[in-house]
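Q: Could you fold this chain for me?
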Amino acid sequence: MSDISVIGLGAMGSALASTLIKSGYTVTVWNRSSEKIPSLVSQGATAATSAADAIASSPATIICIKSHDQTLELLQTCEASLNNKTIIELSTGGASEADALTQFVTARGGSWLVGIINAYPTAIGGEDTVLTIVAEPTLWEKWRPHISTLGGGSIHVGTNASMLAALFAALFTTRQGFMFGMLYGALVCQKAGIPLDNFAKLIPVSMGVLPSYHKYFADTAPTGNFDNPPATMATYAAALDDALKTFDEVGAPNELPKLFSDAAHKGMDAGLEDKALTALVALLNQN
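A: Sure. Below is the predicted structure, expressed as structure tokens.
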């Protein structure tokens, strides 16, 4: 019996298996195609003859393939192996797919953890690498050492499998807000005749304010205390209006700054002008 199995030996799955082996765990591996297996066997892994064999060989199996749907299809060929086994699903997918997968595992006597790997394969095993995990607390505590081996900053974020899809969407939207901010910033610079290399050089300067933005958010949104902020809704609305006016005056596409301005004015219309901008989280959640 191995300590843990890994199914799916692409770049990420191979990194997961290799890190576990180097950390002293006994690991069984399986992949639909066999070319990735010899390298891990040379490191000390045991090769399973099938997915069902991999699951049967360990108390828990990490699955890292394309999607929750593909994981479910795979597990449907291994039903008899799932009883009293734990599936650690690190593939991707939406809320309904995660629910369908975990319900299938539970109905066959198994247990589950579902996670997102917030890193590239080269970062697996790092102290600051984060896997975000949803699971019952007892399962999280049981498998936390293995998961922390893969990412030292890994955290438990809830118990409902569908939570993870929402968390991914939230974090992805945050990152893409920055990306699309740069894209629209480039548009207004081009219309104003500002060379994009100058704009690009100044972006890191502007990014210097991001820690204070994060603190503003972290100090207000989680607690619901929106009083006496360092910058009020009215302050943000005025600045956003100025930015929107500039986009319009130079003839740049304004969808993004208009979205920001419109949201701030919803707060103003609701009488929140003296509150933190983050009061919009509570306001918009009412709609």
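A (continued): The mean pLDDT is 96.
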